[in-house]
């Protein structure tokens, strides 16, 4: 059944740096808070509902960066990570409440339990894969108790909290929404009882359908329903041919040696089931990258996490997104390289096809007549003639 409801569309803040070519030092942009503010302001004006701020050793701290960007934006929401084990649930509850207050209720919380085992060890987390989710379940008993009621007690196996209190509540009630992505059985079982939105990386529709069915069954066993989102890169151009040329150009400076080195790291330093599923889409082969119609796995040759992009014209990509939407996806977390320019391309080319409205405060460009861009000369733009 076709779904005509507009997708909730978020963008991405590349807080570890940005660039125009994957696996290359050509035209790179280092981590720079002012650049991130440019992207956030553009996303705010262009009609994106929010931004994902990633977390990890190579990234700026997500709560602090979100607070900085909140001061530069008006409507934009901020999806930031809570990583159980890197701080106590009481500390994260205070962070979340304060950020929700200073942003006037614009906080979304992204639960991140897994990732690189070596990075987790650097953060002092040494639990085996499935046990990390048992720990996270106890963590969120305390966290949710605090942000929802201001009080929590737990004498658990991993978490102990005696008369924990949160005096200042968040703006959103009962709490900011909880997002989560994890492909293992342990991850799905953990999420079923607490999350509001389940996120999947951009796998082929048949695989996404299986995952959604799995999550729905797990949530139903707790008497709950969850909504669904997808994390994808986008390469959208006016024609399909131009889009595929842009995809090829994105990896045009990527050598086979760089791919092999990156794939070795991704295989050996992560116990993430989701990461393994991303790798299996292409197996490091650059000649087998269209893994489903218009779904291109070239990003995953070197990038951790989300490794696929939708490639094509606005009409083509809109059709592919409607396939995901018919499965139950209602939210897209998008990105493109470089992120400032691609935020404009996606909004200007794709949003009209998706029925996503432009910002309400957009100023009038004329008194109603059409304009033809003439290069922005001293005399203004060329006036449109109905006879032309």
In total, how many beta strands?
17
> Radius of gyration over alpha carbons?
22 Å
Structural class category = alpha/beta
Specify the oligomeric state. single chain
Under the CATH scheme, which architecture would be assigned? Answer: Alpha-Beta Barrel
Order of helices and strands: EEEHEHEHEHHEEEHEHEHHHEEEHEHEE
CATH superfamily: Luciferase-like domain
Tally of individual domains:
1
Low-confidence stretches: none
Q: How many individual helices? A: 12
Helix content: 25-40%
The CATH first-level class comes to Alpha Beta
Q: In percent terms, what proportion of residues is strand? A: 15-25%
Could you name the CATH topology? Answer: TIM Barrel
Largest sheet: number of strands, sense, barrel closure: 8 strands, parallel, barrel
Enzyme class: oxidoreductase
Family: Belongs to the SsuD family.
Pfam families: Bac_luciferase
InterPro entries: Alkanesulphonate_mOase_FMN-dep, Luciferase-like_dom, Luciferase-like_sf, SsuD_RutA_monooxygenase
Structure described in brief:
Residues 9-330 form the Luciferase-like domain. The protein is an alpha/beta fold.
């Amino acid at each position: 059944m076709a779904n005509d409801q507009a997708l909730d569309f978020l963008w991405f803040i590349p807080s570890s740096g940005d660039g125009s070519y994957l696996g290359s030092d050509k035209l790179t942009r280092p981590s720079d808070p002012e650049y991130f503010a440019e992207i956030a302001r553009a996303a705010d004006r262009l009609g994106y509902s929010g931004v994902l701020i990633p977390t990890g050793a190579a990234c700026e701290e997500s709560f602090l960066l979100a607070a900085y960007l909140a001061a530069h934006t008006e409507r934009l929401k901020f999806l930031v990570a809570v990583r159980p084990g890197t701080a106590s649930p009481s500390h994260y509850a205070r962070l979340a409440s304060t950020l929700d207050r200073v942003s006037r209720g614009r906080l979304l919380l992204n639960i991140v339990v897994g990732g690189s085992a070596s990075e987790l060890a650097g953060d002092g987390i040494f639990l085996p894969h499935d046990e990390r989710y048992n720990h996270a379940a106890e963590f969120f008993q305390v966290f949710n108790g605090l942000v929802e009621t201001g009080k929590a007690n737990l004498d658990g196996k991993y978490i102990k909290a005696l008369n924990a209190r949160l005096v200042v509540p968040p703006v959103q009630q009962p709490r900011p929404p909880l997002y989560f992505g994890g492909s293992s059985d342990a991850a799905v079982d953990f999420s079923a009882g607490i999350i509001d939105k389940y996120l999947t990386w951009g796998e082929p529709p048949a695989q996404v359908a299986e995952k959604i069915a799995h999550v729905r069954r797990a949530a139903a066993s707790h008497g709950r329903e969850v909504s669904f989102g997808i994390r994808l890169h986008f390469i959208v151009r006016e024609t399909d041919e131009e889009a595929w040329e842009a995809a090829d150009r994105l990896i045009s400076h990527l050598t086979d040696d760089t791919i092999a080195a990156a794939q070795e790291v991704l295989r050996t330093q992560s116990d993430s089931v989701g990461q393994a599923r991303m790798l299996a889409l292409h197996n490091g082969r650059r000649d087998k990258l269209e893994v489903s119609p218009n779904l291109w796995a070239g990003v995953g040759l070197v990038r951790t996490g989300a490794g696929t992009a939708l490639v094509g014209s606005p009409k083509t990509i809109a059709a592919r997104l409607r396939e995901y939407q018919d499965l139950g996806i209602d939210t897209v977390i998008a990105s493109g390289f470089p992120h400032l320019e691609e935020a404009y391309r996606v909004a200007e080319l794709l949003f009209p096809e998706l029925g996503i409205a432009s910002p309400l405060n957009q100023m009038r460009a004329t008194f109603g007549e059409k304009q033809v861009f003439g290069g922005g000369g001293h005399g203004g733009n060329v006036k449109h003639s109905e006879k032309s």
